[in-house]
Amino acid sequence: MPYVPSPLIPSATADHNFSTANLPYGVFSTSSNPTPRIGVALGDYVLDLTSCVDLLTQSVEGLTAEDVTSKDLNCLMGRESKVWKGLRRKVFELVTGESGLTMDNFVSLDSVTMHLPAKIGDYTDFYSSREHATNVGTMFRGIDNALQPNWLHLPVGYHGRASSVYLDGCDVVRPQGQLQKNKDDPKEGSVFGPSKLLDFELEMAFFVGGPANPPGTPITMAEAEDRIFGLVVMNDWSSRDVQKWEYVPLGPFCAKNWATSISPWVVSLEALEPFRAPTSAGSQKDPEPLEYIRDPTYSSYDIALEVTIQGENMSKPEVVSKSNFKNLYWNVKQQLVHHSVTGCNMSPGDLLGSGTISGTPQDSFGSMLELCWKGTREVPLGTSGEVRKFLKDGDTVSMSGVCKKEGVGCVGFGAVTNKIYPAGTKLKAGGANGVWKAA
Amino acid sequence: MPYVPSPLIPSATADHNFSTANLPYGVFSTSSNPTPRIGVALGDYVLDLTSCVDLLTQSVEGLTAEDVTSKDLNCLMGRESKVWKGLRRKVFELVTGESGLTMDNFVSLDSVTMHLPAKIGDYTDFYSSREHATNVGTMFRGIDNALQPNWLHLPVGYHGRASSVYLDGCDVVRPQGQLQKNKDDPKEGSVFGPSKLLDFELEMAFFVGGPANPPGTPITMAEAEDRIFGLVVMNDWSSRDVQKWEYVPLGPFCAKNWATSISPWVVSLEALEPFRAPTSAGSQKDPEPLEYIRDPTYSSYDIALEVTIQGENMSKPEVVSKSNFKNLYWNVKQQLVHHSVTGCNMSPGDLLGSGTISGTPQDSFGSMLELCWKGTREVPLGTSGEVRKFLKDGDTVSMSGVCKKEGVGCVGFGAVTNKIYPAGTKLKAGGANGVWKAA
Ligand SMILES: [Ca+2]
Ligand SMILES: [Ca+2]
Ligand SMILES: [Mg+2]
Ligand SMILES: [Mg+2]
Ligand code: NI
Fold this sequence. Notes:
7-stranded mixed sheet; alpha+beta; Fumarylacetoacetate hydrolase, domain 2; binds nickel (II) ion; binds calcium ion; SH3 type barrels; 5-stranded antiparallel sheet; 16% helix; binds magnesium ion; fumarylacetoacetase activity (chains A, B); homodimer; calcium (chains A, B); globular
């Protein structure tokens, strides 16, 4: 469904993040109605799905009132893909035609408080950008051994912490923990203190949809697209010094379990389809993946990604990285299929992160670790005069993603933006959405 | 509360798993009432807490009807520890005195179907038995480098998959996945096939209780006991060949995410208190743990653990391992505190596994990997004439735990028992509890 103007919502122009070509799902509330409910973003407005339940359930096969009136997207996510796809098509029809919808069905985007789109049952993070894995491998093992032997054979991943996936807007507190005493000799043990190497990771993540596969029955490549509900932008907050000391041999643990943050609007694969593009690798030939994970339509999506940092004394955010979702060697379908290969049941509402998305040029690296090359160079923050190696207290980090293409409406994700507070800061759950904020 | 006979339930003798010294919580249903509800096991009966809600809420401070009438333990777990402890004391008083309870408040243990005790938000597994870590390290790196440099400084752990934590009785399907082609040279890549090195891991796990700590505010050692609701026996099913190929550098993923199984009754720390015992290490002096994780009452619990295997052609289960919960270097409090040190929010219903519990003698090793010493020796299955290295299709693996001590009533966990089916077997969710079974 390419872009068409919406007679009711003229602000939904072709170059708006939320053009009629997008129609992302989110969960919102308003001061006049604090109950979280499902909406679709359109221009400067949100279509409140609870305002037109009958219209939707009467015309979308398989859609129930519960799917549309729940306080999160889990119920809708749990339906067969034809239900969520059908709902999006119906919304498109309603907002682009003479539909019976009026402005009473919409609330202003300005006036909404966003909530986490779903209860996240399990959260997984991959490591699927070859450029990123090569950078990290080169730093720590040298260029000749940059990629581990398994890396080109499977999407390396690890389970993360679902409880600490927070929404755009939440504050984050610099973690404290165990840090290796002598950086060159782990045998000297550790000291306790605030992490000095605080980092972001520029990622995207997708929500799993569709009924869960039974234990022991993997998802096939043919089924994968119907099990992907939609994508968000994600910041996988990371503490490099905590990670360095703890991660052998079982992987990252306390270095990453304290926060992960996501943007609030979930963009469907159908909205992304016009932006399908070759990956930065182009093809997977050397080696060819094993059959269960071979993708006959191997590709990714052309999603421009950007990271900004604004220090406390800076007047505006400055861009530190521009990357693209194409910079993934393993795509979302391959990640999902591999995750289930041994029989893992994948449930609606599970969140699967891409891994840090880095490109080839230095200014497309997706983490401070790479941008400052392990602390060996200073990263200028635009024309502010400030520089960074790792993140400072008071820094606000923002990540955004957008798809643009001649003749197709814009499909934007919006942003995930969070501010860092000093170690020991107490947070309080506040506002209608319970987002954690420094007092 | 030491053992006292129950006038109403004479089967709850001092040496019964469910003596009055135990009083574990579980979730059950019956054919006449298929609604899952909370019960306390006592002798050959289960006290149905929904049958005496008023009695309980009137006399236990802070206890609400919802805590007692929910379909899982999450609500009760989320209360301050004084509420769950108060409830257990009240139940003790009721079942050991002249209380107004009658047999109408009980159902026969024979007649109940058990359910998962809680919705598990996040599942984490540690690696806290020094004997186990030393065995594994010796096999793969030699005795001189058996423990990694960080191991004695922090409880090494990793996040696991919550969706695939199943209950006692579920069937498990041999996983398929990527296996290293040449075991001595990872550079030759991988092949697809059924895991040949299928293993159990003898573990225990605890459920987190109490209100969640806010993000950024770690749990202290002083607070830890009030955040531990109770323990179960756990089998962390593992595929050693999948693990070997995939786990560098981010840890175990598909090797372990396909199944973890737990026993149904949750035993409280108060019930375990009379069995408090020194750990197999005795003390933590070399090195002394950092202050945040130092335990002034450093100890564990004397829980005898046993693993049996019954092959399809065997007439009875045969013991392959006898271990003890004392064989943990890092105890449950230290695990919980370390998990939260960087600010991770720990939620009621989270499940934290101990790691494989191995002792020093060969017959106390907690996995086939150790028992067969990486495939170099055959493990006899009792007098059956059968031997194993790793697990075979058709094997039933059972793990149980029990505390016994002169003058104190028995505190038993019961068992977690599961049968292995061949790769590709389709499972169906069946019975009142939706446990997955081969057709
Ligand atoms: Ca994270
Ligand atoms: Ca497992
Ligand atoms: Mg990451
Ligand atoms: Mg384990
Ligand atoms: Ni989880």
